From TrEMBL:
SMART domains: Pro_CA. Its EC number is 4.2.1.1. Keywords: Lyase, Zinc. It comes from Streptomonospora nanhaiensis. PANTHER family: CARBONIC ANHYDRASE, CARBONIC ANHYDRASE 2. The lineage of its organism: Bacteria, Bacillati, Actinomycetota, Actinomycetes, Streptosporangiales. This is carbonic anhydrase. Belongs to the beta-class carbonic anhydrase family. Pfam families: Pro_CA (PF00484).
Length: 230
């Protein structure tokens, strides 16, 4: 029995990434609301729930860390049915995660796939520790840490351990995004211009999403909020 839930018929190729860029701008606006304490929690009322009973069509997919401090729908201030979200510690890819992301492309014509890492990531910290000690944790945890360690081993040393950890967080998000761009089931949509895969980093202290592939080192292009007093 087929399990794929088709949304609408596949549309023409995105013109110069227009739709993906527009959806990223929408995420930027939501993140600005979130970090300035102005979240509006859109599309969560009874009408939206009824609308989604028989059909969903999220054009944005997010692969994020499982960290409880980084819930994507809240970080981007999005509503029900807006994002197809998959979470794993350190954004580690396995067959189940990859199958879920491919499902999003097949079922919902994903236009933007965000790989969302964050500072102080426990999985990345564990991989850095494994690099320093030469030992992996046992069992399934060792598998997870080992996947991140493959990226950590490629990162140049930094002036401080904190800077090295953050460089590893950024490198991991970029590496996962690059792998996804070439993954069977996803690469055709990327090559045809129907989908963009973009790595990002969430800053816990500033509540801000930074897009890692921007030439400017971009942080969404929206000014930071003024410091709150009181």
């Amino acid at each position: 029995m087929a399990i794929v839930q088709k949304a609408a018929p596949r549309r023409a190729t995105i013109t110069e990434g227009h739709d993906a860029d527009r959806r990223r701008q929408r995420l930027d606006r939501g993140n600005t609301r979130w970090r300035t304490f102005g979240s509006v929690h859109p599309r969560q009322g009874s009408g939206r729930r009824r609308e989604l009973l028989e059909h969903q069509a999220p054009r944005v997919s997010v692969l994020s860390c499982a960290d409880s401090r980084v819930p994507p729908e809240m970080v981007f201030d999005q509503g029900l049915g807006d994002m197809f979200t998959t979470r794993s510690a350190g954004q580690v890819l396995d067959s189940s995660v990859l199958g879920t992301l491919v499902y999003g492309v097949d079922a919902f014509d994903t236009e933007l796939l965000v790989v969302l890492g964050h500072d102080s990531c426990g999985a990345v910290k564990a991989a850095v520790e494994a690099l320093r000690t030469g030992e992996l944790p046992p069992g399934n945890l060792g598998y997870l840490v080992g996947q991140v360690l493959e990226v950590v081993e490629t990162v140049p040393e930094q002036e401080t351990e904190k800077a090295f950890l953050d460089a590893c967080v950024r490198a991991n998000a970029r590496a996962v995004a690059e792998q996804l761009r070439h993954e069977p089931g996803l690469r055709e949509a990327v090559a045809a211009g129907r989908m963009k895969v973009e790595p990002a980093r969430y800053d816990l202290r500033r509540s801000r999403v930074e897009w890692l592939d921007d030439a400017s080192g971009g942080e969404g292009g929206i000014p930071a909020p003024r410091a709150r007093t009181g």
